[in-house]
Amino acid sequence: MVSTREARAGWLFVLPWVAGFLLLTAGPMLYSLYLSFTHYDLLKPPRFAGLENYREILLDGRAATALWNTVFYTVLHVPAQIVLALGLASLLRRAGRSAGLFRTVLFLPTMTPPVALAALFLLLLNGQNGAVNAVLGWFGFNGPQWTTDPAWIKPGLVLMSLWTVGSTAVLYLAALTRVPAERYEAARLDGASAWRQFWHVTLPGISGTVYFTLVVNTIASLQVFTEAYTMFFGARPSTPAEGDAALFYVIYLFQEAFGSLRMGYASALAWVLFLVIAVITVVQVRLSRGYVHYEDRS
């Protein structure tokens, strides 16, 4: 049993975090929930509007477009991130003594500020003289207009997002090193091919880490903002040809809040996104029960 003195000491240690959570997270969230039922433009007091903001979201074509763009980006980005990171982690595992150096080099791009990354890829993805299309040209391919063709804007942003795959790869490398070598030896003795070893030994052994990165990357992808905003709404004016191809949900929320000063409507948009993320996360948790394996489970 924990004594009263120990309990008080524990609460004393966590008090700064609790105070910060209540003042900087829970408080603003509850206030934004209240604002979502009001009309508020920062200049006048909030006026109660009931469910009007939420009804408007259902009829708002740009909100639907922004949500579709965000989901489309997520469906492309998350599997690509996981597959590439797993491949790189598998290569790092075979690097031997050089693994530490390669691990550091692989992780360094993660430290690039998002705004600098967006500015860099505006040059790399330039359809006329960008480095990506130049490399494709070496192999006889005509590269697309990554930053102006609506059909290629989101794939271009996914390509840019893979620049920071190193953080996920390092997590997978740590998980791979924890898979017991005896399992591979037993599989080889049973005549399992390399692919069957990967499917029946490696994946179950790192399924907890894969599940963690799936959830985290999904949540992050649904909130994509900085890079896309810098490339298409901040660094240069958008062109009519681009349309709303780069209009992600959080960008639209930002425009409504600080461009149109519709804080009530923006708050409603934020809570809709919160519910979408919550539903997707619950579905992932339910589906994981049959596929994710942990060492302490039978």
Which key terms come to mind for this protein?
13 helices; single chain; mainly alpha; 298 residues
Write up what this structure looks like.
The protein is mostly helical and 298 residues long. It has helices at 4-35, 52-59, 61-93, 99-107, 114-124, 131-138, 150-161, 166-177, 181-189, 194-222, 226-234, 249-259, 263-288; strands at residues 38-39, 47-48. It has a two-stranded antiparallel ribbon with strand order 1-2. Strand 1 and strand 2 (47-48) form a beta hairpin. Helix 1 crosses helix 13 (263-288), helix 2 (52-59) crosses helix 13 and helix 12 packs antiparallel against helix 13. It is globular. The model has no long low-confidence stretch (mean pLDDT 88).
Entry summary:
Helix content is 70%, strand content 1%. By secondary structure, the protein is an all-alpha fold.
Question: Could you give the topology of this structure?
Answer:
Blueprint: H1 4-35, E1 38-39, E2 47-48, H2 52-59, H3 61-93, H4 99-107, H5 114-124, H6 131-138, H7 150-161, H8 166-177, H9 181-189, H10 194-222, H11 226-234, H12 249-259, H13 263-288
Helix pairs in contact: 1-13, 2-13, 3-7, 3-8, 3-10, 3-12, 5-11, 8-10, 10-13, 12-13
Helix content: over 70%
Number of strands: 2
Q: β content, as a range?
A: under 5%
Classify the secondary structure makeup into a structural class: mainly alpha
Low-pLDDT windows of residues: none
Average pLDDT, all residues: 88
